[in-house]
Amino acid sequence: MLYNVIDIQGRPRVADGTGGSVNYRQVTPGYFGALGVPILRGQADRDPNRNVVILSDTLARRMFPGETALGKQIRPGRVGPWLTVIGVAENVKNSGLAQKDDPEFYTVRKHRAEVIGRGAIAVIRTVVNPGGLPTAVRAEVAGLDHALPVKLETMDQRVGTLAERPRFNALLLGIFAGMGVLLAAVGLYGVASFLVAQRVQEIGVRMALGATPGAIAVLVLKQSAQWTAAGTVVGLAGSLFAVRWLAAMLFGVSARDPWMLAAPAVLLFGIALAAAWVPSRRAARVDPIEALRQE
Q: What angle do CA 116, 117, 123 make, to 5 degrees?
């Protein structure tokens, strides 16, 4: 369920439909423990006689910036009783791993006899192999009502479903990145070979004046390294602006993580030197007499 307006007791009422939508979930006190969602501040209520609510950290910061949310009273949808905030829970990515943390609030069911909606979900935490639970769960549900449909899945399966699209996007980006690296290596090899061919006479003169084959190879590699370093700096500067469009596809990794930025730079630098190695060895084997005859 979604709410697009929430009143805060003691504050002016805002216009309907402002501030975006907020997700709502009705849970039991054991919900957070079963899913391993920590309560950052406050507690999960167990008193059946209180109208209480638990906010996600995102919603608490948005509604009560710079102050504690505990003890405040809110009323979602402007109907029903005022709810007292008794806890702030860690954010949960219910909309997908690559999505931003949605603001949510949770109300705690006060009585077991309360009506459960058609889309209710039971979370079962176990220390044994979950593969043996479906039979027991189906039997328990059938004992309550044979007509109740039951769909079972493990948490790994649920997370895997949420991760399908990000994994597919990551695979595509990986393929394109690999093709880009391959094209970069071919291009660097071609440029280095062309420059060596253009400088055959210069290399011949250097060798005639006493330059060793090793010194010629180092000269070509050094110049290739300089070009690559300049391109790497420009590429890193461009990536700092481009990461804002890729940040939504990252999970558990900062878009500006220094290691994530440094690894491709080091990889491309190594590929550039490897691509220049063959032309540098070719330059080191230039016959100075043959090179000077081309003058």
A: 70
